Amino acid sequence: MHNSLNNHMISSLLRLNYLRNFADVKKWDGYLHRQDITPMEEAETLKAAIASGRYDYATLATQIGKSENYIRTRIKLTTLIPEIARLIDTEEITVAVATEISRYGKDVQTDVYNSHLKDGVVHNNWRTMNASNVARLIERNYTTDLSRYKF
């Protein structure tokens, strides 16, 4: 798995470098509308478009027919650790679940992956859960519940 993860990362970096060098939106717009683009490829493409400085969120949203929130949410997926990003692209978790996980830092993501999403985890596996349940569990297990404290 380690080698395939490295190959995926290299492939993604090559695609990202290619996308950063696009001369105009028509070329990568076609890329975004491909049927076989993975969610992570889409996220990296959108991120590269914004990073190029040629587009802000509003302009990009208009150009591709998506909302600004959609673009921001997809770009947020680029903050996921590679192991979780792979689970999206292999459809082992949904984009909605990954979006919930992307709201947290790498330390929480790593623990969520190792404790609940990693291959072989049987007890407390979150792969088949919906996004609202994952959000609730992350909140309960990884954030401080202030209602337990007296002020």
3D architecture notes:
Helices cover 64% and strands 0% of the residues. The protein has helices at 2-20, 25-32, 39-51, 57-64, 68-76, 82-89, 95-102, 106-117, 131-142. Helix 1 packs parallel to helix 3.
Q: Strand content of the residues, in percent?
A: under 5%
Element string (H = helix, E = strand):
HHHHHHHHH
Oligomer: single chain
Helix content: 55-70%
Overall 3D form: elongated
Number of strands: 0
Regions with little confidence, pLDDT below 50 for 5+ residues: none
Mean pLDDT: 82
What is the end-to-end distance?
48 Å
Largest sheet: none
Radius of gyration: 17 Å
Q: How many helical stretches?
A: 9
Structural class: mainly alpha
List keywords for this structure.
151 residues; mainly alpha; elongated
Short description:
With 151 residues, this protein is mainly α. 64% of the residues lie in helices and 0% in strands.
What layout of secondary structure does this protein have?
Layout (H helix, E strand, L loop, with lengths): L1 H19 L4 H8 L6 H13 L5 H8 L3 H9 L5 H8 L5 H8 L3 H12 L13 H12 L9
